Amino acid sequence: MIKLVSIFLISVLASAVNAGHDGPKSFSSFDISMQACTKYIAKNMEVCPSAGKHSYSYDCYCHLDTGFGTISDCFVTGYENHTDIIEEFTKQCNFTLTEFYNKYDKIQQEFKKNHTHYYHPNKTAGSEGKSGSDKSGHGGSKSKRAEEGHGGNVAGKAAAGGGHGGTGEEEIKLSPVPLRLDYGDKFTPYKNAYRMYNNNFNISMDYGAILLGYWGCVLVIAMVFNFKNKMFPKLQLCPKFIQKHITIPATFKKYKASQFSFGLGGFFDCLIPTRLETISLVVFVLLTGFLSALHIHHVDNNPQYTTRNAELGHIIADRTGILSCFLIPLIILFGGRNNVLQFVTNWDYATFIMYHRWISRITILLVIVHAITFSVSDKATGKYKNRMQKPFMIWGTVACISGGFVLFQAMLFFRRKCYEVFLLIHIVLVVLFVVGGWYHLYDMGYQNFMWAAIAIWVFDRVVRILRICSFGVRKATISIVGDETLKVIVDKPKYWKSIPGGHAFVHFIKPTIFYQSHPFTFTTHYEDTDKIVFYAKVKNGATARVHKHLINCPGNTSTIRVLIEGPYGNPSGAGRQVKNIVYMAGGNGIPGIYSELVDVASKNVDRSIKLVWVIRHWKSLSWFMEELKELNKFQNVESSIYITKPNDYSGIECLNNNNSVSYSDSEEMEEKKIDEKDSASVHSTQISIISNVKNELSHMEFIEGRPNITSIVNDEIVNTDDSLAFVTCGAPMMVDELRYNVTNSIDKSKYKIEFHEQLQTWA
């Protein structure tokens, strides 16, 4: 149902975007030549009245000898009889090529007959000969034009034969005869300058399409591999050399899931993508820089601009501004939770968010370059002060400043300090950026890019609301387990299918936190398949407030209404692609790993599966005890649990009963016991509890201490008898360590080896 609604919404939004909005203007060879010719002619003497900026009095240029004779000579002589230009002109004038050349030849014969020479500005019109005088009686007419500038351009803006005086207008005299001008070296700067200026808009649109095409190619490659994995799961397309050096490793050393620190209090800490992702981003950055500068150069004696700064500043500003327009909808698309590309590529949300951040950074830098270079150009032409008072520039400034703040505010330091505050500010700034951009671009024909971005954002929000509404408001039983985790049990709708290894966003309906949504992995309840169970590690923010509420509840358990948005995510796919699987989880990373493991083990009895769970304390077993017992059903699953702090018995009483006990309660119990018994007796009780746990989980191996990941990976790869995959979720350092060792050992086996990271890092 959700997918059908999604398709309907996409269709409606696409129709809304395309309706009623003119797109960016493209400039044909005729448009460019018309500008160059009319500007060059006007520099000598006007022959036709102005019809406004980028508009022409075709009645004069087509039907009056004065206009036609002058402009046609420019096309034939100045543009070397360019066929496309002349054909477009004849369409505007509604006559054939034969009629064009007949009329042109007739006027040229008059020039030759009267020995007409090139027009010189210092000579009077009468000295040029009267053979081509306007037979309609318009010779010597006057026109008014207004001075209007945009980046150094001057365009006529008044009707012919005017008589309407006004501020900023000057009266000009029209030539009574056709002009025969010098289209040699003097005309060359006009041809080059107007080709550079106008064609830059065409080229920028093409280059923007190339940037989108680049990401289209990246996505298509991902789609091909996803299709291969689903249709031919055992086929290996990627050689181990590529896996070892490109597709699996982190960019530098072991830093991928864990943050890379530059010191300085963590202010400049960042997350670094995988090597393959980094390569794709570096190519994108280089391509963007290359396309931002390609075919931009200085034109000697440029008639549009008096200085090089004004000229190049304007051209670069137009280029970078248009390129940024193409990327803005892509940013919004990659940042959405309901991005359809997740389904066709099988990329997880964290991958799209990573690309979302990097494309955003490049886009904002393009916008900043756009603003700086336009300011340089306007300063050079003296138009800066006047232009900055116009509404489109005010809104452009709002968009640029908002984008700059987004670039700064989205740093990892701020995201990790207080994610909810970051998210709220981020949304406000992005809204200002998009709205400001829309107003800035409205009269230029580029506003449709903003409409596309808005449509994508609205689509994502509507689908999110539909997901929440379809799940409904549910009562959840929430308990504190192991003093470190919230266990959330919720009844799910009949249609709601759990995704092995998936996650969902949970809203706790309490006055101070109802607006927050947090992603948690889930499992199906071990006894009731109509229930799902979330395990949320207690941190700051919403989970801390729920924990504080539960502390004062009987048995540390309460019923709280929740909203669920999901499910999202995909299983790793290892169960379909390989024969042997090693699942390694750390701490609260176990629920997603467990749900996928159970799904694979129940559907594929011929698979050899190993589970390695790394926890700090014995008490952590309490919140996942029932699920661990369920693993005894599977003969093809071998499980190991590492306890890294085996001598820390705090909260171990949780394992003695089914009710959770908070850490403070356990401390009080221990103090009472110490008063009643000596410490040796207490220790004996703790050992007894651990012994009972081991008996209940006799199908699992308990190992005290940290796992030697290097040894585990090496042994599995060297001794495997068939294809092998490592699937992991847990502490970032553990995930990175596993990735690093799989990379180093991947070529030690002749069989197919894979690595799948299920850790979702987007904050």
UniProtKB/TrEMBL annotation:
Signal peptide region: 1-19
CDD domains: NOX_Duox_like_FAD_NADP
Transmembrane is among the record's keywords: yes
Subcellular location: Membrane
Main location: membrane
Topology in the lipid bilayer: Multi-pass membrane protein
Keywords from the UniProt entry: Electron transport, FAD, Flavoprotein, Glycoprotein, Ion transport, Membrane, Oxidoreductase, Signal, Transmembrane, Transmembrane helix, Transport
Domain FAD-binding FR-type: 455-574
Annotated Pfam families: FAD_binding_8, Ferric_reduct, NAD_binding_6
GO MF terms, alphabetically ordered: ferric-chelate reductase activity
Similarity comment: family membership: Belongs to the ferric reductase (FRE) family.
Name of the protein this chain belongs to: FAD-binding FR-type domain-containing protein
Organism the protein comes from: Candida verbasci
